[in-house]
Design goal:
Layout (H helix, E strand, L loop, with lengths): L1 E3 L7 H8 L29 H32 L24 H4 L7 H33 L5 H13 L2 H11 L5 H6 L10 H28 L3 H9 L4 H29 L3 H6 L10 H10 L3 H26 L22 E3 L2
Antiparallel strand pairs: 1-2
Length: about 350
């Protein structure tokens, strides 16, 4: 065997033209592909100034509403939190005409003896949120699975499940207050006289039951929307492969419905952290067992202590923001579908080599 190489400068290109264009090379009648940059990444087309102005014009109404509804009240609350409550001036002995400037005293007071009520409200808020959201997620998924199945009278079942969510929270609080009354339905069912609307663990239990009854259909509705987009062919293929109902739920239903479920849990968590009206109407104000941060801030403001009320409201705002941020970061809700991976660089074709039999 004798190997011969085409020396440089010979008509190698002409031979290649005779045989046809090399694989991957643009033909004469085809459109040429843009060259690949040396780093292997193509530049994304940038938006023109006209497109940027149009985008800013379209989102400006939303930004304006957010500035009026969120940004301005937050700035005002931050300013009010730096002032204390009016009282006697120790220098003059007269009542102050304006609120005294106390700086960060309203925030640092929560770490002293005066912060006992704040931490009680903080842990009540956290406990009620974790408990109600967990129960509502389990019950809501079960409701969605029931509403998704095809059976006679499904429309009536769907309507009856969604009725509690449609009832206003104030009406729900009054309804359950009658149920948990001393001679109400709850005591008649258990056969004991329990003071549900007073201090104690039973007050927390009453709030949890009422809140789960009202807002579990919300999670069920969002999960039902996720179930509607799952193709039936997926379940038929799993059934042919011998998968049972429980295996189909864990391996098909739950992974495919996960985006809708995460959105429902996120919305419900943020709403539960701001819980105010249900325990306020069902149990009452200034009840240590169920007092939340929202109830504490409202009570301080109603007693003309606007500085501490603004400080508690800001702390609640930061708490909700951190929970939402952690939820998005940990569960990957910020994925937009582009992992940013650079495309692989195409290999260059080696020089043509010819082998001639000796």
């Amino acid at each position: 065997m004798m190997k011969t190489h085409n020396p440089p400068g010979t008509d190698e290109g002409s031979q290649g033209d005779a045989e046809g264009p090399a694989p991957g090379a643009p033909g004469r009648g085809s459109s040429a592909q843009p060259p690949v940059p040396p780093n292997g990444r193509r530049r994304r087309p940038r938006a023109t100034s006209g497109t940027g102005r149009l985008a800013a014009l379209l989102i400006s109404p939303t930004l304006l509403v957010l500035a009026i509804v969120v940004l301005y009240p937050t700035i005002v609350a931050l300013k009010d939190s730096l002032y204390g409550t009016p009282g006697l001036d120790p220098e003059t002995g007269f009542v102050r005409e304006s609120d005294p400037f106390v700086g960060m005293e309203n925030f640092t007071a929560i770490f002293g003896e005066a912060g006992e009520r704040f931490w009680n409200a903080f842990w009540n808020t956290t406990f009620l949120t974790a408990t109600t959201v967990t129960l509502e997620t389990v019950i809501g998924v079960a409701m969605a699975l029931i509403m998704h199945r095809a059976f006679q009278g499904r429309a009536l079942v769907r309507a009856s499940i969604l009725v509690p969510w449609a009832i206003p929270t104030a009406v729900t609080g009054l309804l359950w207050r009658w149920i948990f009354n001393t001679d109400g339905v709850a005591n008649a069912l258990i056969g004991q006289q329990v003071l549900w609307t007073t201090e104690g663990w039973h007050a927390k239990l009453a709030v949890i039951i009422a809140d789960v009854w009202k807002t579990a259909p919300f999670i069920g509705l969002l999960v039902l929307a996720g179930l509607q987009v799952i193709s039936k062919e997926v379940y038929e293929a799993a059934r042919i492969d011998g998968a049972g109902p429980l295996s189909q739920f864990w391996n098909i239903t739950l992974p495919l419905v996960k985006p809708a479920l995460l959105v429902a849990v996120l919305f419900r968590t943020l709403d539960a952290l701001r819980m105010f009206d249900l325990p306020y109407i069902l149990i009452g104000a200034q009840k240590t067992s169920v007092e939340t941060l929202s109830m504490l801030a409202q009570d301080e403001a109603s007693n003309v202590r606007f500085g501490p009320a603004a400080a508690y409201a800001l702390i609640l705002f930061v708490y909700v923001f951190l929970i939402a941020l952690a939820f998005v970061r940990l569960l990957g809700a910020n994925v937009v579908g582009d992992d940013g991976a650079a495309p692989k660089r195409r290999r260059l074709l080696p020089r043509r080599r010819t082998e001639v039999a000796a």
